[in-house]
Amino acid sequence: MIPRLVEGKGRVLLGAACGLLLAAAAASGQAPREQRADIDELKAALDAGATMLLIDVREDWEVASGSMPGSIHIPVAELERRMPDIPKDVRLVFF
Asked: Looking at residue 71, which CATH number applies to its domain?
């Protein structure tokens, strides 16, 4: 299933989540610029039919306020242990 984005509240939530992801990646130096996407790039790719797995790595209490439609939740503390469960044949988007 390809996640579809919604306008309004969903777009604001998506923007906030992507902003946090980009800020964390930039601060940690883990993802080179060519591997990062802003909200508009991500939405355009999804609208064009790109297949991506959206993975919400926030804590449970953070996800309780909402997440991106179609995403799965794997808290960052569990990510390494859960990597064998994550498909390797699709682009992964962590936020």
From this structure: 3.40.250
Question: Per the domain annotation, does 1 fall within a domain?
Answer: no
Condensed to tens digits (0 to 9), the pLDDT of residues 9-33 reads 455 555 555 555 555 544 555 667 7
Rounded to two decimals, the pTM is 0.63
From first CA to last CA, the distance across the chain in angstroms is 19
In a domain, 3, yes or no: no
Who contacts 11 (Cβ-Cβ below 8 Å, separation ≥6)? 5, 39, 43
Residue with tokens 């569990």: 78
